[in-house]
TrEMBL record:
Keywords: Membrane, Sugar transport, Transmembrane, Transmembrane helix, Transport. The chain crosses the membrane at residues 6-23, 43-65, 77-96, 117-141, 168-191, 198-217, 249-271, 292-325, 345-369, 390-412, 418-439, 448-469, 475-494, 531-557, 563-582. One of its GO terms (molecular function) is D-glucose:sodium symporter activity. InterPro entries: Na/Glc_symporter_sf, Na/solute_symporter. This is Sodium:solute symporter family, possible glucose transporter. Belongs to the sodium:solute symporter (SSF) (TC 2.A.21) family. PANTHER family: SODIUM_GLUCOSE COTRANSPORT PROTEIN, SOLUTE CARRIER FAMILY 5. It is found in: Membrane. Pfam families: SSF. PROSITE patterns: NA_SOLUT_SYMP_3. GO terms for cellular component: plasma membrane. It is a multi-pass membrane protein. It comes from Prochlorococcus marinus (strain MIT 9303).
Length: 589
């Protein structure tokens, strides 16, 4: 990096700190610090959600997938689009009507008694510490790999700091920078800086994609060279191809039939984020009303899947042509940036990667601190704590989480491996999280059993030698099946929630579906939406998202038939949505 690139980076960091300190004036209460006083617009909340998922690790992760498995490897994360559509269409208004501060606190709205309290405490602990720290470490791992690829650090000891490796020193400096504005500004600082960081991250992705394709001789030349590599999986959007005699599964994609089926039929609803996911729920709870919560979900869908997906993929494909001897495909993204971008532009791209990293880590820190403060400290240790004390606890726990995240990063090597571990330990409880909104019989004991069993089985089948299941898809299916047996048995042998608890939930949330019909009749409550209309909107919205995603990619890769099919599916599905639901729910003509 040239001196001008360093100046750009330092300038960006200084501006971020100023924004965080300036926004700290808005924090007067726990609500201000963790849900921005519930005053966010859908556009800002959705942009923050997109920035959170656009970490420094994501382009590296996609580059690693494409380099080792080809395009179809992206179904590992594309499949979550199904859950994110459900979040935007079905669950966003339900979460906003609940009015809770965290999804852990929601458990004591939906359930009652000691089981609900235990569930809230255990969920808060697991999500705030092991799960969240793995996520923070995941981002720091990517940061470590990027700065080493850029030549900023080399892992050599720093004598004046007692021989501490320069990589650790740099991670510590960046961690302090993130802490200052996150601890001071709370969610307001996180969201506002997220918006700036998202714009920078998108500009950086465009710059790297343009430079990489240009260096490869343009899109036509790049595609010709990729075909010449005799790796059919590289340009196959799905892990099979038509060979004249029928469909042939592409072995080079390293995606078994069981794994691909798991992506589409199990992973997205069995994972613990099936009804939104902690930081996404935090953003939806922070919006002004239900319509803004739904709008936030749609803004995230468009940016995350339709705008930036193919920017990352294009860079990954270009790396296969430009860096044929690359050993670690996850490093191809920063390597291309260093090799083909001139000064100033390189500085902007480095800033975009740092911005993406900071948006993810700041969100994880604030979100995790909300569990430790609201769901553990206030709920079980100091119920009478005043707002000033809760703000101090939130700031202290933010520091704790970041330190633990850095430690996690120093003991990991593969971004893709960490990603799959996070999914494995969160698989199993998703179906319970969905059903609790639609069926009165789900109780706290069933959700607790599903969460603990999924965590234990997923962890053991991933890392314990004697019971490890090598095939990823088979592992997900077995984890989901074992967890299902456990939570169903537990639910049947434990009593249902009391009528008072169920009535309180129905009055507050107005849930849809026949599972609540008796209670709604007793309370004379009409659901805001019918289950049939929600299912129809979900199906149409899935068509819009995946028609647009796959159609755009097919046109980009000069696969005209696939492009036209995707375009037709998108148009056919979007018309009834814009005429009905989008107009009535979000004021879109």
């Amino acid at each position: 990096m040239a001196a001008i690139d360093w100046i750009i980076l330092v300038g960006y960091l200084a501006i971020t700190l100023v924004i965080g300190l300036w926004l700290s004036r808005r924090n007067r209460s726990e609500d201000d610090y963790f849900v921005a006083g519930r005053r966010l617009s859908g556009w800002l909340a959705g942009a923050s959600m997109a920035a959170t998922t656009f970490s420094i690790d994501t382009p590296l992760y996609v580059a690693g997938l494409v380099g080792t498995r080809g395009l179809a490897g992206n179904w590992e994360w594309w499949s979550f689009g199904l859950a994110h559509v459900a979040m935007a269409v079905v669950f966003a208004p339900l979460w906003r009507r609940s009015g809770v501060l965290t999804d852990a606190a929601f458990t004591e709205l939906r359930y009652g008694g000691a089981p609900a309290a235990w569930l809230r405490g255990i969920k808060a602990f697991l999500l705030a510490l092991p799960v969240n720290c793995i996520g923070i470490g995941y981002a720091f791992l990517a940061m470590r790999k990027v700065v080493e690829a850029l030549g900023i650090v080399s892992g050599s000891p720093v004598a004046v700091l007692g021989g501490t490796p320069d990589t650790v020193v740099l991670l510590a400096v960046v961690a302090v920078m993130v802490l200052v504005y996150t601890v001071a500004g709370g969610l307001w600082a996180v969201v506002i800086t997220d918006f700036v960081q998202l714009l920078l991250a998108l500009l950086g992705a465009v710059a790297v994609a343009w430079a990489a394709v240009h260096a490869a001789g343009g899109m036509d030349a790049m595609l010709d060279q990729l075909r010449g590599l005799e790796r059919p999986e590289l340009l196959a959007i799905v892990p099979w191809q038509w060979n004249g005699d029928g469909f042939d599964w592409i072995g080079g994609a390293e995606i078994s039939v069981a794994t691909f089926l798991s992506y589409l039929t199990v992973q997205w609803w069995s994972f613990r984020r099936s009804d939104g996911g902690g930081e996404f729920i935090q953003r939806m709870l922070a919006t002004r009303d239900e319509r803004q919560a739904q709008l936030a979900g749609w803004v995230f869908l468009v940016v995350n899947y339709l705008v930036r997906s193919w920017l990352w993929v294009v860079v990954a494909l270009a790396a296969l042509v430009l860096l044929p001897a690359q050993a670690d495909w996850e490093l191809s993204y920063p390597t291309l940036a260093v090799t083909y971008l001139p000064p100033v532009v390189l500085g902007l791209v480095v800033v975009s990667l740092v911005a993406a990293f900071m948006s993810t880590v700041s969100t994880a820190v604030n979100w995790g601190a909300s569990y430790l403060t609201h769901d553990l400290y206030q709920r079980f240790i100091r119920p009478d704590a005043d707002q000033r004390e809760l703000l101090l606890v939130g700031q202290f726990t933010s520091v704790l989480l970041l330190v633990l995240g850095v430690i996690t990063a120093l003991i990991s090597d593969s971004i893709g491996t960490v990603f799959r571990l996070v999914i494995a330990i969160g698989t199993g409880p998703g179906v319970v999280l969905v059903l609790r909104w639609f069926w009165w019989r789900i109780n706290a004991a069933a959700e607790l059993a599903a969460m603990v069993c999924g965590f234990v089985v997923g962890l053991c089948t991933s890392v314990v030698p004697l019971v490890t299941i090598p095939d990823y898809g088979t592992r997900l299916m077995i984890t989901t099946a074992i967890t299902a047996v456990v939570w169903v048995v537990v639910m049947l042998v434990t009593p249902p929630e009391s009528p008072q608890v169920l009535e309180r939930f129905v009055n507050q949330v107005q849930p849809p579906g026949p599972g609540w019909s008796r209670l709604r009749q007793r309370l004379d409550i009409t659901p805001v939406d019918s289950l049939v209309s929600l299912c129809l909107r979900f199906i149409l919205s899935v068509g819009v998202l995946f028609g647009g995603l796959l159609g755009t990619g097919a046109f980009l890769l000069h696969q005209q038939l696939g492009g036209w099919i995707g375009l037709v599916v998108t148009v056919v599905c979007v018309l009834p949505l814009t005429r009905g639901w989008l107009r009535s729910r979000m004021g879109v003509a």
